[in-house]
Structure formats: structure tokens, C-alpha cells
């Protein structure tokens, strides 16, 4: 038996809950061609009536209810691979506002700290379409004075006068780096992180001119500051990059929803792209490969 504890991190609207809902639907409905599956006799902890309603909303192309501030939904899955090896996955889901509050308040509650220490692996979700992308002026005024000075020095300028300069980084990138630094400070040991790029279908549209796109390359292009931080600290932060389209379509786009509704199986909406660029619908690959 292999028991692993996972922890989901990500700013608001980064795709954590949608991933869990789609993953749970896959386990409930799929019995073949996936790395991990359920057995009917095993009780899955956290599979509440409210969570089942979220699964129903997902299958009907409806927006999911937002995870409330301070709310935590803990899932504990008992699963098996093709060789009948038993896996127990513990996966708590907390609201993205929780992580915003950690950054702004500079405070980590005891339960969160314990979860960070106990986690065997972190699944860190990012949604480039939902991140706060500001211009250079708003970015610099939001950062601490020391960071403002550093950015001005790196830019070769004395401040905000150069209006034609491209933003050096996104405000959201600063938040991610802060969280990563706090995570390491709490753990004081090496950490395995799988970055999950949500809404991968949107990335395919944005990079449609490219013959193929790899999650690592997209991450580096979209979040250069975070990527540089991870690269500079690779001795104690082990990173993989994955792409996931758990919703499968823009819920505000009626044409996309209509096209998706023709899928024979709901899981055909899902797309999982591993670090090498291989594509499948098997969300359990993220936990075992």
C-alpha cells in the first residue's frame, strides 16, 4: 500500500476545485484505461452530498460553487493501480483567498502549517487567464520598497518614467514567489511541486501557431519571474509542469459548450498534458507518474 498526502495550493480561481470534481467524476465513472481506479466496497471520505452536487454541475456545464473563505474540503481516496497496488490519497482543498490572506497577513495558521509539513507533494495550480496582470506602474507601487528598488535597478531606470517599457513581471508572480518562500521556510526541507497549468484549452488557442506546446515552456513564457526563482532554487524545490483542461470549455461560450456536449463521454472534455507533452484524459496520471 502506498499512502501519499497531497496539498493543493493556488490563488483564487486557479482551478483547484474544478480539478478535484473532474477527478472524482473520473473515478466514479471510469474503470478502464486510467492509472488509478476505485473499488465499490471502499468508502471514499469527503464524497458528501454537496460535493456530488458539484459533480452534477460539472457534467451539466454549470459554474461550480466557489470554495468559501476559511472553508476546507478534505478528500481521502482509496484507489488501486492495474497491478492492484493500493493507494491512499489525502487531498485537502482550501479557497484561494486563504493563500491571499497568508501573503497579506504574513500569518500561517497551525492547521495549514501542519498540512504543509505533512504533504508528500504539492499540487500548485495556476490559471494565466485569471491572474492579476498589471502595468508596470501599478506593479511597482504594490510591491515592497526593497523590491521596487530592485526592479528599477534591473530595468536600468530610476523608477516609473519609462512608459514604453514592458512590465517586468505580473503582480501574481510576486504572490506565487512569496508563497513558495513561505512553504520552504515552514518545511525546512526539499519539496516536490507539480505545477498544474489550468485551462490548458486556452493555452492551445493562444499558442496555436506553434506545432506543439510543452507545459514547462508555457510556464516559463507566462511566469518568467517564478520560473527563475524555481530554477535558482532547484536544489531544494523539485518541479514538474503539467497542463490540465478540467472544464473543457469556456462556460460563457455557447458554441464551445455545444461542441463539447457532443462528446460521448464527459471525460472526453478533459485533457491532461504531462511534462513531455503527451496528452490523455487520465487525471490520475498526475498522482502516479
Task: Please list the strands of the largest sheet in the order they lie side by side.
Answer: 2-3-1-4-5-6-7-8
Proportion of helical residues: 25-40%
Provide the gyration radius in Å: 20 Å
Distance between the termini: 16 Å
User: Would you tell me the overall average pLDDT?
Assistant: 82
What is the CATH architecture assignment?
3-Layer(aba) Sandwich
Could you describe the 3D structure shown?
Helices cover 39% and strands 18% of the residues. With 289 residues, it is of the alpha/beta class. The chain has a single domain (2-133, 191-288), classed as 3-Layer(aba) Sandwich (Rossmann fold). It has an 8-stranded mixed beta sheet, sandwiched between helices. Helix 1 crosses helix 2.
Please give the structural blueprint.
Layout: E1 2-9, H1 16-29, H2 49-59, E2 72-80, E3 86-94, H3 96-105, H4 110-118, E4 121-126, H5 136-142, H6 145-155, H7 171-187, E5 191-197, H8 200-206, H9 215-222, H10 224-232, E6 237-245, H11 254-260, E7 271-273, E8 279-280, H12 285-288
Helix pairs in contact: 1-2, 7-10, 9-10
Give a quick set of tags describing it.
single chain; 289 residues; alpha/beta; Rossmann fold; eight-stranded mixed beta sheet; 12 helices; 8 strands; globular
Brief digest:
This protein is an alpha/beta fold. The chain has helices at residues 16-29, 49-59, 96-105, 110-118, 136-142, 145-155, 171-187, 200-206, 215-222, 224-232, 254-260, 285-288, and strands at 2-9, 72-80, 86-94, 121-126, 191-197, 237-245, 271-273, 279-280. The protein starts with a strand and ends with a helix.
Amino acid at each position: 500500500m502506498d499512502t501519499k498526502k497531497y496539498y493543493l495550493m493556488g490563488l483564487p480561481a486557479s482551478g483547484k476545485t474544478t480539478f478535484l470534481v473532474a477527478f472524482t467524476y473520473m473515478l466514479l465513472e471510469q474503470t478502464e484505461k486510467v492509472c488509478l481506479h476505485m473499488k465499490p466496497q471502499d468508502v471514499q471520505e469527503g464524497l458528501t452530498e454537496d460535493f456530488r452536487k458539484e459533480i452534477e454541475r460539472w457534467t451539466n456545464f454549470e459554474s461550480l460553487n466557489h470554495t468559501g473563505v476559511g472553508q476546507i474540503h478534505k478528500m481521502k481516496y482509496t484507489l488501486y493501480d492495474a497491478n492492484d497496488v493500493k493507494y491512499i490519497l489525502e487531498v485537502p482543498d482550501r479557497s484561494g483567498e486563504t493563500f491571499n490572506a497568508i501573503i497579506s497577513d504574513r500569518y500561517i495558521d497551525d492547521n495549514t502549517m501542519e498540512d504543509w509539513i505533512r504533504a508528500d507533494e504539492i499540487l500548485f495550480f495556476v490559471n494565466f487567464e485569471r491572474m492579476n496582470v498589471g502595468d508596470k506602474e501599478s506593479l511597482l507601487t504594490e510591491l515592497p520598497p526593497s523590491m521596487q528598488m530592485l526592479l528599477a535597478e534591473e530595468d536600468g531606470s530610476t523608477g516609473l518614467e519609462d512608459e514604453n517599457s514592458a512590465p517586468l513581471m505580473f503582480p501574481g508572480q510576486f504572490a506565487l514567489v512569496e508563497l513558495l518562500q513561505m512553504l520552504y521556510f515552514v518545511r525546512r526541507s526539499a519539496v516536490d511541486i507539480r505545477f498544474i497549468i489550468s485551462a490548458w484549452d486556452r493555452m492551445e488557442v493562444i499558442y496555436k501557431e506553434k506545432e506543439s506546446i510543452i507545459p514547462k515552456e508555457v510556464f516559463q513564457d507566462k511566469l518568467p519571474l517564478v520560473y527563475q526563482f524555481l530554477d535558482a532554487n532547484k536544489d531544494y524545490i523539485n518541479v514538474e509542469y503539467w497542463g490540465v483542461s478540467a472544464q473543457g470549455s469556456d462556460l460563457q461560450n455557447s458554441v464551445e459548450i455545444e461542441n463539447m456536449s457532443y462528446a460521448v463521454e464527459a471525460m472526453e472534455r478533459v485533457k491532461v498534458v504531462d511534462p513531455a507533452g503527451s496528452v490523455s484524459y487520465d487525471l490520475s496520471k498526475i498522482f502516479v507518474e
